[in-house]
Each structure stands twice: as C-alpha cells, then as structure tokens.
Amino acid sequence: MSNPSRRQGRGGRPPREPEQKDAVRAQILLAARRLIVEDGFRALSIRKLASEIQYSPAAIYLYFESREAIARELCLQGYRELLRCLHVAIQATADPQANLRACFAAYVNFGLSEVETYRLIFIDEPEYLAAAFANWPADNPATQAYRLLLDVAQAVLCVDGGEPPRLSVVEFAETCWAAMHGIVSLKLTCPAFPTTPVEVLGRSTVELLLRGLRS
C-alpha cells in the first residue's frame, strides 16, 4: 500500500496535516544528506532529490526554495546537535577548568561519533559550505556554540593564577577550537595517525593549553 502523505506530495500538493508536513520535510533533508555524503554537493539537484523520494520537483519547492536552502538547514541541524552536546557536557560542573576539559571531550566525541554531521558542518567541499553559511539567521546555533566556547574560555581566564593570561578571551577560545578541530580532523582524514589514543590527546592538549596561559 502506498504512503498517503507521499501521494499528497506528488504533483506539488502539500500534505494537509502538520505532522505530515514535518515528516516530508525530514524525509527531504535525510535524502539530501545522503546524496551529499555519497556524491557531493554538486550532484545534488531538486530534480534528483525529488526522484530519490518519489515526489515531484514542485513538491520539494514547497519546503525549500533551492538546494542552497537545503544545505543551510542541514548545517543548522548539525550545529544544533553540537550545541546540545556541549551544553550537556558543561552543565555537570561549575569549575571553569573542568568545564573546559568537559567541552574538549564532548566536542571530540561528537566529531568522531557523528562523522557525517561533522563533515557536513566543518570539512565538506567549499561549494557546500559556502551555500550552507549564506543568509543565516543572526542568532543561529553556530553562533550560540561559539558564544558558549567564549564563556568557557573567559571563565578559565578569570581564575586567579598569579600572572595575567597571555591571550585574550577570543584568542584562547579560538586556540581551543583549533585544537579540538585538529584532533577530530586528524582522526577522520588520517585514522592511522596520530597513534596516541584520542582521549589522551584531548587531555594532554587541554593541560598544555592551561599551562601555557601564564607561562
């Protein structure tokens, strides 16, 4: 028996129920994600996507105005997932340095456990990322994740350690981000190297960063 929501979507007629609309939208995004991961963003077209999920191209346009809009939503979804992981990690403790360690561990774990998502929001082809980051809302999950990292960095820098820190909040936050991204990228793009377990890499990197703040 055919899917009634799919029948309604053919020919450009939208599903009537909100639940059906949400389901179709999720189906479009899932299929688009699969096509981008398998064949690259250049291979994605509204016509190909419509064929993949057995809808008309007109039906796809009822949900997304272009393939760039689809890329943007996929990227936003990925950052929402990352932001949620970081929030959960740093809520466990009020200690600034412990929060930084938790943030590091959560970020690296997210990147290595949600490989497709991480590649889509950080490592994928330039054409896809350019489309994904175009015309974002001002208060988007990527900006929120960055602000969260800034807050963690500022709390660490405010801990009394004698000598004043040698980096600004932004410099320290972005150094941490570069280190976290570096660990994930190395493991994803060259899994044989480094040979040190990722947990050890994360812990040692955080400790070196903390020591270097006032050395």
TrEMBL record:
List the keywords (alphabetical): DNA-binding, Transcription, Transcription regulation
DNA-binding region per Swiss-Prot/TrEMBL record: 45-64
Residue numbers spanned by region Disordered: 1-21
> Cross-referenced InterPro entries, in alphabetical order?
Homeodomain-like_sf (IPR009057), HTH-type_TetR-like_transc_reg (IPR050109), HTH_TetR (IPR001647), MT1864/Rv1816-like_C (IPR025996), Tet_transcr_reg_TetR-rel_C_sf (IPR036271)
Q: Boundaries of each HTH tetR-type domain copy?
A: 22-82
GO molecular function terms attached to this record: DNA-binding transcription factor activity; transcription cis-regulatory region binding
Name one matching Pfam family: TetR_C_33
Q: Which PROSITE patterns match?
A: HTH_TETR_2
| Cited PANTHER family | HTH-TYPE TRANSCRIPTIONAL REGULATOR RUTR, TETR-FAMILY FAMILY TRANSCRIPTIONAL REGULATOR
| The name this protein goes by in its record | TetR family transcriptional regulator
